[in-house]
Design brief:
The protein has helices at 15-27, 39-49, 67-78, 93-100, 112-115, 118-129, 137-143, 157-167, 172-179, 183-196, 207-217, and strands at residues 7-11, 31-36, 53-57, 83-88, 107-111, 133-135. The protein is α/β, with parallel strands linked by helices. Strands 2-1-3-4-5-6 form a 6-stranded parallel beta sheet, with helices on both faces.
């Protein structure tokens, strides 16, 4: 249950959308400590306020191309403790890969239509602030198309379905509810994925993250989608 107030810096050049998001976040218990309409303004706000998470539009002035993602990458380098959730009108897999090149922890990427779904958006913010990852299912789908799937091809349809849900950040309990099976059945499928991917238990066991990393890496990416709790399984 969400029981703390997130401190957020919001970067969006559209004043109307920015004001609407400030109102939305405030109504959901978040504190927007600063807003920015440009990448330099975002960087300055993060340095000054050290928020829990920065919410960043990918396309920002002056070129409306990748200023937001560049700023997000710089924030990751300067203040890795600050979570980053970027959003875009379209699926931009190249930019997502740039942002996640140094690791998936504390990163989110949502389509703007997802932001309108308030509960999903706020849940994603908290997940990112807690060191997890929140990627839009449409982005996951795009990244999983094409390429070789040597290890993935060894999975049964159900195992692939379970892994796909893992890639969207679902826990075993959540997957069980979605597939209308027992949690024990999901655990067996997850164990089978680990085995087929050659992932052995270690002292700091994060096989769940590694399985999704391997899944997406075989489809042209180097990152995973998971929540904070998944990294501890």
């Amino acid at each position: 249950m969400i029981n703390r107030r997130l401190r957020v810096v919001l970067a969006e050049d559209s004043v109307v959308l920015r004001d609407g998001m400030v109102e939305l976040l405030g109504a959901r218990g978040c504190e927007v400590v600063a807003t920015a309409g440009s990448a330099p303004g975002l960087l300055a706000a993060v340095v000054e306020h050290r928020p829990d998470v920065g919410v960043v539009d990918i396309r920002m002035p002056p070129t409306q191309t990748d200023e937001g993602i560049r700023a997000a990458v710089e924030i990751r380098a300067r203040t890795p403790e600050v979570g980053i959730l970027v959003f875009s009108q379209h699926v931009e897999t190249t930019w997502a890969s740039r942002l996640l090149a140094d690791g998936a922890a504390g990163i989110g990427y949502l389509l703007k239509e997802r932001v309108a779904r308030t509960s999903e958006f706020v849940d994603a913010l908290y997940r990112v602030a807690d060191g997890g990852t929140a990627l839009d299912p449409e982005i996951v789908t795009q990244l999983m198309r094409g390429g070789r799937r040597s290890r993935v091809d060894t999975l049964t349809p159900r195992e692939r379905e379970v892994l796909g849900l893992m890639a969207q950040g679902h826990s075993n309990r959540s997957i069980a509810a979605l597939l209308v099976v027992t949690e024990r059945a999901v655990e067996k499928h997850v164990a089978a994925v680990f085995s087929k991917f050659g992932l052995r238990a270690t002292g700091t066991d994060n096989r769940r993250v590694k399985a999704v990393l391997a899944y997406l890496a075989e489809n042209g990416s180097q990152w995973a989608v998971t929540d904070a709790s998944a990294t501890r399984r």
